């Protein structure tokens, strides 16, 4: 029988192989997020120093040939002072956007935004190009924890317009009506280690 299996390349899984496949894989929040984020087409650069964040931001802008970006976050504007790029404070649908986010969702690779980042505009009406600055402390397990985090961080003044980017490949076409109009963006994530 072994000869026939080898001849016809019939592989019978051993009971040990089956047992290994049945075991659940428990990834850390950051590993889980990165896994889903990359599988959805996202690009990220990990930094441990703020100088690396500035260097990576400059590299993204130069690589894409962008002469201007939109940024309405005062803290993030400080990161752009040494980069030769024109900054527009009003977000629009033609200029790449440099922004922060509320949370990074580990179990799906999504990035959660609110009116704190995008104002009253819908993600679909904004530019296809996003550069998002986030920290490792913004990682949460799921959307529920992200919404709870927003509620806890902004007690009494909860932001509106909470939405997420779910796909990072804008060239994909999808005929699934349930996934129609999902927010797809060409997205770079500048992930800063703050823990």
Automatic annotation (TrEMBL):
<dbReference type="InterPro" id="IPR024185">
    <property type="entry name" value="FTHF_cligase-like_sf"/>
</dbReference>
<dbReference type="InterPro" id="IPR037171">
    <property type="entry name" value="NagB/RpiA_transferase-like"/>
</dbReference>
<feature type="domain" description="LUD">
    <location>
        <begin position="82"/>
        <end position="187"/>
    </location>
</feature>
<protein>
    <recommendedName>
        <fullName>LUD domain-containing protein</fullName>
    </recommendedName>
</protein>
<dbReference type="InterPro" id="IPR003741">
    <property type="entry name" value="LUD_dom"/>
</dbReference>
<dbReference type="Pfam" id="PF02589">
    <property type="entry name" value="LUD_dom"/>
</dbReference>
């Amino acid at each position: 029988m072994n000869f026939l299996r080898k001849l016809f390349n019939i592989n019978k899984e051993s009971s040990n192989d089956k047992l290994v496949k049945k075991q659940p894989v428990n990834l850390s929040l950051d590993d889980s997020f990165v896994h889903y984020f990359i599988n959805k087409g996202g690009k990220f650069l990990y930094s441990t120093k703020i100088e690396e964040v500035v260097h990576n931001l400059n590299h993204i802008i130069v690589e894409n040939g962008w002469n201007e970006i939109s940024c309405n976050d005062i803290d993030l504007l400080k990161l752009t002072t040494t980069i030769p790029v024109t900054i527009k404070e009003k977000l629009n649908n033609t200029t790449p956007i440099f922004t922060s986010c509320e949370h990074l969702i580990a179990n799906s690779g999504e990035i959660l935004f609110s009116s704190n980042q995008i104002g009253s505009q819908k993600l679909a009406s904004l530019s296809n190009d996003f550069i998002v600055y986030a920290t490792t402390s913004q990682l949460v397990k799921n959307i529920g924890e992200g919404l709870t985090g927003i509620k806890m961080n902004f007690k009494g003044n909860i932001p509106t317009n909470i939405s997420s980017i779910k796909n990072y490949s804008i060239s994909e076409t999808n005929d699934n009506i349930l996934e129609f109009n999902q927010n797809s963006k060409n997205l770079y994530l500048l992930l800063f280690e703050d823990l």
